[in-house]
């Protein structure tokens, strides 16, 4: 069954001095201020498209990783994923670094690394971001 999720943004003014709000409309869990300085300088209590992409990527990756290992008979105790999205004004998103740490009893290091790479490749958000030239992964299996 397909699902559609919706966010809405209202923007006022030009790019550099303007401001806006993005609403997570499907879940109705919040409206967040956005601005150019939050993107290109310091967040200052506001979010940016890149931070929202990082949230989407880290959560999707964690789900894909857990699902892939469950399909192979493993139980993931914990998985913590950080996504760092780099935005370069004038160039766009130039890179994403995924850092994952997970505790998976009985999983070898080699199988862990293979599962981590598979999740990176098959996570729907990774696939949607295929235009980003540099998406890297740093995966650590915890004891």
From TrEMBL:
It comes from the Bacteria. GO terms for molecular function: peroxidase activity. GO terms for biological process: response to oxidative stress. Pfam families: OsmC (PF02566). NCBIfam families: osmo_induc_OsmC (TIGR03562). This is OsmC family protein. It comes from Streptomyces piniterrae.
């Amino acid at each position: 069954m397909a699902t559609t999720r919706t966010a809405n943004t209202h923007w006022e003014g030009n790019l550099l001095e303007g401001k806006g709000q993005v609403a997570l409309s499907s879940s109705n869990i919040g409206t967040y201020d956005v601005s150019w300085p939050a993107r290109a300088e310091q967040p200052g209590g506001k979010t940016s498209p890149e931070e929202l992409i990082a949230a989407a990527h880290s959560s999707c990756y964690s789900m894909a990783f857990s699902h892939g290992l469950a399909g192979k008979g493993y139980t993931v105790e914990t998985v913590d994923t950080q996504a760092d999205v780099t935005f370069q004004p004038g160039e766009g998103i130039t890179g994403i670094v995924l850092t994952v740490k997970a505790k998976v009893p009985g999983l070898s290091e080699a199988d862990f690394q293979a599962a981590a790479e598979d999740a990176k490749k098959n996570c729907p958000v990774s696939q949607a971001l295929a235009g980003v030239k540099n998406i890297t992964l740093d995966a650590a299996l915890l004891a």
